Amino acid sequence: MEPAMEQTQYLVVGSSHAALEAISAIRMHDATGTLTVVTRDAHLPYSPTVLPYVVSGKSAPERVFLRDDDFFARNAVSYRPGAGLAALHADSNTAELADGTRLAYDKLLLATGTSPAIPPIPGIDTVSYHVLRTLDDALGLREAIAQSRQAVVLGAGLVGMHAAENLVKAGASVTIVEMSDQLTAGYFDKVAAQMIEQAFTDNGAKILTGSRVVRLEPSSVGARLTLANGQSLEADLLLVATGVKPNLEYLNGSGVAFDHGILVDDTMRTSVANVWAAGDCAQAKHFFSPTPRVNAILPSATEQGRLAGMAMAGDAGIKPYAGGVPLNTYHFFGRHAISVGSSEAPEGSEVLTRFDEKTGRYLKAIFRDGRLAGIFGVNEFFDGGIMCQLIVRRMDLTADKERLVADPLKVGRELMSRTWR
Fold first, then answer.
1. How does pLDDT run across 86-114, given as a tens digit for each residue?
2. Exposure winner among 117, 137, 156, 391, fewest CB in 10 A?
3. C-beta separation of 288 from 310 below 8 A
4. Cα separation of 77 and 412, whole Å?
5. Three-class SS of residue 220?
């Protein structure tokens, strides 16, 4: 006999930033509607951004949670960890969980995040490797790092670089293999990437950019990697950090339209009735492009989650999504880098840069028609949130460009206090 179907007014699938913002937005408008959160993760909510600090030991695992049981009790939320979504039957407003439970909903938010994208390298299924996307991944990697003497990191995005630094500091011999011709492509330009690379090589890491692994096989050490140029590497710890992809398998047959992510409108509504999507799994309006994009960063997840929650609860105060603006911060070997906005400088753009080799300070700002399009710095202090607002509000900075580049922290705050009333 099939178990009785459970019923909830609001069903939220996922438990990180987008989901939590949606819960708060729903409860601001509807204090009593039944609200259920299901998540495949076994833990209380946490941010993926904290995982590198769990690996390094800087953050204790028991202290990383964004909400506690008391929060869910106060907000009358049924929180169900370890319950992944297996299938969505949107025609009958029903969600089917991995354990066979069926939940009927009035309104559904998909905030299911991403999983590591594993490259199709021949032999990858014959060797042991680590990924870093969940708290359990972080705890496993932390334990392995303590034992490692010879590590290889595939991928030089921010996740791979964080882990590589922890390995270097733990005393391992570390090689980073990256297909692109620079580190941190998509976040920083070549000048900034070169500064980051220098910090790693100064600390003993080997960096192989423009390199591709063509074969993996078990070896006496752990894994042997063969590169396209014929070079061979041995690893007792292999970390695969070659990007992420949204979790969309449960959508098959649901009628919910998706491309790289779940396609949503400016209030995070999907192509089917009563279903919204937000965060890393959503493909939403992008500030710099007519084509919707997955913008897998924390500020986008929180904003999208808030809008989805408002829309689900019928909050009349909702304003359409302005579009995602990339914002990333990165700390490495006591230094920091930050990137906000678009790194593209089409013809007619004005690019202002300054670089002080002695202090290792680098700043680059891109303006289009006197308006800020992107700003990037290494060892430079400025407020990423303010820069984001300067971009989104399309403020005319013609009279302030040089001052902003000279002192972005001070001038950014001054512009904010002068104009944001």
1. 999 999 999 999 989 999 999 999 999 99
2. 117
3. no
4. 40
5. coil
